[in-house]
Fold:
Amino acid sequence: MRLIAWLLAALLPMAGASAADYAGPLFDAHLHYNEEAYQGPYPLPDVLARMQRNGVQAIIANSRPNDGTKALAEAREQTRAAGVTVVPFIRLYRSRADYTNWFRDESIYALVQQEYARGTAAGPYRGLGEFHLYDSANANGAVAKKLMQFAQKKGLAVLAHVDDVAVDLLLGHAPKARLIWAHTGISGPPVARVQALLEKYPQLMGELSYRPGLTCGDGALCPDWRTLLLKYPDRFLIGSDTWVNQRWDAYDGLMRGYRRWLGELPPDVARRIAWDNGAGLFQLP
Ligand SMILES: [Zn+2]
Structure:
């Protein structure tokens, strides 16, 4: 009996690992098309080919400066041919210098107003971000506060690279704003803390690129994260975070990695995290 139990324990993880990868559509909820990509080695046909061959059928598009997003939005024929729906977000950065000052810079608020009024060839902007707060206290910056309230008023989603303290501060300014927490906390707040924030804010979503502790060993889900995803299947999104060109280079592998652990989940849960949650946020067909 002991031997059988031991054999079962040894073989079960292998059975899990051989589960088929998720094969359905992907919603890339954290995509940048920055100038060093579109002016460099990743022109539009190249990035669309990467999305198409990976089954990425919709993207949250944002870029530094906003020209990359506009280029994606204007390429109606090419994106349609690639089967990619572009969900445009307004980036708050004209250059890298804006990363560390946007939350108190009135000219950034003016930029957002101007972009929002202009819209894109793919329709109105649907969100703000990604923005960064390296010091959570800056969530109380005058412009950060105004932008959260603007997003809430206009029904814009907000893609925010912030810590758990800043999630509380940002949603304190605009309790009904739809916040997408980039990386679900890149510094890896404990699963219990993530769960507490999901409970506290029903409109909070977690995007999973770079999330520490999500996968263990060979790309399989870590047990505590598997439990969390099963408990909140409607609250998570996947994303590439192509913040530097190397991420475009790695795009196929990143999407393969998602498909691998999504395949470990029940098919309906995998489909929600991979596609339905993002499609639902922006009312895609
Ligand atoms: Zn990013």
Summary: The radius of gyration is 19 Å. Confidence is low (pLDDT under 50) at residues 1-18. The chain has 13 helices and ten strands. Strands lie at 26-32, 56-62, 85-90, 127-132, 157-161, 178-181, 205-207, 215-216, 220-221, 236-237.
